[in-house]
Each structure stands twice: as C-alpha cells, then as structure tokens.
Amino acid sequence: MGSKQYGAYRAVKRTIDVVVSLVALLIFGIPMLVIALLIKLSDVHAPIFFHQPRTGLGGRRFDVLKFRTMVRNADELKEQLRHLSLVPYPDFRLENDPRVTRLGRFLRKTSLDELPQLLNVLRGQMSLVGPRPTSFDASTYDLWHTGRLEFRPGITGPWQVFGRDSMDFDERCRLDIVFFRHPTIWGEIRLLLMTVLVMFRRTGAA
Question: Of the candidates 112, 84, 122, 119, which has an alpha carbon nearest to the alpha carbon of residue 199?
Fold first, then answer.
C-alpha cells in the first residue's frame, strides 16, 4: 500500500470510527445509563467506570474506559492470583476470575462492559478495529512484539474473532501483525460484523 493509499485508508477509517461511535452512543445511551445505575446500586462506594492504563499507538499509555465488572480491590488480588493465570507473564487471564461480580459476569458475557470505549474511539485513542491494547507497558515487549504498536488499538481485533482464550501474547501478536500488515477498510468492516456474530454466539452459549 502506497503512502497516498495509506493516507486515504486512515482518513476513511477515522471517519467510520467517529460516525459509528456517535451512532452507537445514541443507540446505547439509555442502556448505558441503566448499567451505570445497576453498578452504583451494587456498591455505592465503588466507581461505575474502570480506568486502566493501556499501551496504545507507538507505545503511548492511555486510560481505557470500561464499566466496572470487578470488586473494588481487584488490582490488589491480581498478584495473589497470578499463579493461576492461563497465560504466562506479563499477560494475565483466569478461567473463572473470582474478582468478577455477578453483574460483571453478565456484562462481560454480552460485551456490554466495553461500551464506554466508544469514548476512547472519539478521543482518537482507539479505533473500532485494531489490536487490543495491553495493560502491561511496551517495555515488557520483545522487539518483534512492537510491530503491533504501529496500529491504533481497537475495541475489537483479530484475536476476538479468530483467536482462542488460551492464546499467549506471542500468538496474539502474530495474529495482529499478519492481519494489519495489509489493512483494508472492507476487511475491517468484515471483522466488525464477525465480532457481532461471535458476541451473539457467546451470549447464547449455555
């Protein structure tokens, strides 16, 4: 892809990000208010939103927004549970994370906890489609991992559609880099539609 083509791709991609995010916020505005109220009622002293530093484009750190799905002291408990992680350090993932609240399990299963990230997209920190931003800093990356930092992180990406929960960071990086090495708008729209299908399948799963 030449520089002019890549410039056009980025312009169209950003336009789609802004338009789709604004429309989605209008559609999901009331459900988001209901979710926020339910989270606050479940623990009036805990925040509604979860702010976590993530690694984005060029290795820059930014605060990703999610609805809170865990107990208040989740970060403190993380290190105590690290030995149970399904993936090696610095990544972290548990099959049945005991820190997740009852409401949080529903929000995660339906991916509704991700809706506030539409604000990250409007701010230009994220895109609708891109590699998922990592909680750990780029200083922990191997040199070849940094290839994924050439792309703006996304609400969804190849891992959400083609990956598996058991994939480690190396496998995720390979998947991201191969997918975005030759980016196309139609390819990303297809991935967005496939993400919706994956969400419905997970929601309907027993």
Answer: 112
Helix (H, G, I), strand (E, B) or coil at 66: strand
CB 102 within 8 A of CB 68: no
Domain that holds residue 45: 3-204
Give the chain's domain count. 1
At 100 the three-state DSSP class reads strand
* pLDDT tens track for 149-178: 999 999 999 988 887 766 888 998 999 999
pLDDT > 90: percent of the chain: 59
pTM of the model: 0.84
Q: Does position 206 have pLDDT exceeding 50, yes or no? A: no
Select from 107, 106, 127 the least CA-distant residue to 117.
Answer: 127
Closest to 135 in 3D by CA, of 158, 153, 156: 153
Strands (E), the chain: 49-55, 61-67, 127-129, 154-156
Instruction: Answer whether 176's CB lies under 8 Å from 157's CB.
Output: yes
Q: Using alpha carbons only, what angle is made at residue 122 by residues 150 and 145, rounded to the nearest 5 degrees?
A: 20
| SS percent in the chain: helix, strand, coil, step 5 | 60, 10, 30
